[in-house]
Amino acid sequence: MFADLHLHTNFSDGTFSPEELAEEGRRHGLAALALTDHDTVEGCARMRAACARHGIEFITGTELTADWQGIEVHILGYLLDTDNRELMEKLTRFQDVRQHRVNEMVARLNELNIPLTAESVFALANCRSPGRPHVGRALVQQGFCGSLDEAFDRFLKANRPAWVPKFKMSFSEAVGLIHRAGGLAVMAHPGLNRADQVIPDLVAAGIDGIECYHSRHSNSTAQHYLNIARQYRLLITGGSDCHGMSKGKPLIGSVRLEYTHLLDLKAAARSRQNIPPEAVAGSNATV
Q: How many whole angstroms separate alpha carbon 149 and alpha carbon 133?
């Protein structure tokens, strides 16, 4: 039995609907899926229902962007209580910031005589959590760029003309928010951050786990982070970081996390929430 615990849908910057993503999970024979859309849990209800139809276990999640002493860290929050008032209020605020960032990027493009409108980006995104990929797709769709790579290389990458810095909460704030919502905080794709030197600090600040397996981690990179996880007694997770077809091909199925790691994750969540194991039995548990 295997899981993929890092997936995105069109509720943020993925292209698959929750139903399409669950179908892909079934096609790849995955036993459990976690939805980790950026700054939102809005797709979780539909994803849970779609997974239930395929007999797949569903794990509620989200991906937050945080700052640790000037270093950007992505944090996956798992097994969250989506009725938690503080969590939902903060996610709404983060979504507002994302929408404002799109407006700023479009304004900078307009200054470059690129007549893109924010309305066209929001219509394409059709979600409350838009991001740079939606601006890039709009540039391609309207003929201003030939590809998403070109859109990022010319305009949207860091320090390019239309780049706008991303809002980042503090690392401690992000972890505290996840914990108060009953969840677990996991450092996403550490091999992409290249900031191993901060991991001891993140452990001291309350991180619960580390994403050792990722579609852009080589076998040696995965082993490196497995060693770190064992050294600091961190939970081990993994996922494809699939964004649907936005990167040319679906990545789901490229990372197959052994189900025993998900059992460890759920046991840690039960311990934090003081929930008895029998309360979450069943093929579609969310904790």
A: 10
| Residue pair 125/135 in contact by the 8 Å Cβ criterion | no
Q: Please tell me whether residue 263 adopts helix, strand or coil conformation.
A: helix
Q: Which two tokens stand for residue 42?
A: 């809005």
Tokens of 82: 């989506």
Sole residue written with tokens 């799109």: 102
Measured distance CA(20)–CA(52) in Å, rounded:
13
In the numeric block, the tokens 């759920």 are attached to 266
Q: Kindly state the tokens that stand for 4.
A: 């993929």
Name the pTM for this structure. Answer: 0.91
CA dihedral of residues 225, 238, 181, 60 (deg, nearest 10):
180
CB atoms within 10 A of CB 16: 22
What DSSP state is assigned to residue 199?
Answer: H
For 222, half-sphere exposure in the C-beta direction (CA atoms, 13 angstrom radius) is 15
Residue 45's H or E segment, with its range, is helix 44-53
Which domains are assigned to the chain? 2-89+167-280 (3.20.20.140), 101-156 (no CATH)
Tokens of 51: 């997974």
- Quick: pLDDT tens for 226-282: 999 999 999 999 999 999 986 667 899 999 999 999 999 999 999 877 654 444 433
DSSP 8-state code for residue 279: G
Q: Are strands 184-187 and 71-78 parallel, antiparallel or unpaired?
A: antiparallel
